[in-house]
Amino acid sequence: DRFGEGLALIGGRLYQLTWESGIAYVYDASTLALVDSIRYPGQGWGLTTDGKQLIMSDGSDSLRFMDASTFRVERVVHARSNGEPIQKLNELELVGGEILANVYESNWIVRIDPASGNVREMLDFADLYPKRAGYAEVMNGISLAPDGKQLLLTGKMWPVMFEVRL
Fold it and tell me: What is the reported pTM?
């Protein structure tokens, strides 16, 4: 009865956001047994980790850096490109020390400096899946492949996943 969103692994636990319910579910990564649930304010859109903290998006230009055990916000950075906010930050993945964020309802992924929030690069994936079926919606999935060298990209209701090297 809840819409699941971002998922991140840290310290042997999987953390899963819910979009509008404001509840994060915590699972044992080995057994997938539910071990906790944590309330948080606002919406949950995307989630990643730097190995120490969880990093969460909520559909705005904000990235919240949070303590994994309490979801206490330790700091917030705002994504900016040429001084302008980048809204609708959605799916997140930390790659090479930078945050990749899908901009919801677009074909863009932005590369963000986690210390400052400055957008270092805007990547246009409009040509990735241009002739998608009518039921297939927007690009929405970013994951680092197991080899650590490529990204796996997909979208809402896409029947395909793309392997991409940057």
Answer: 0.94
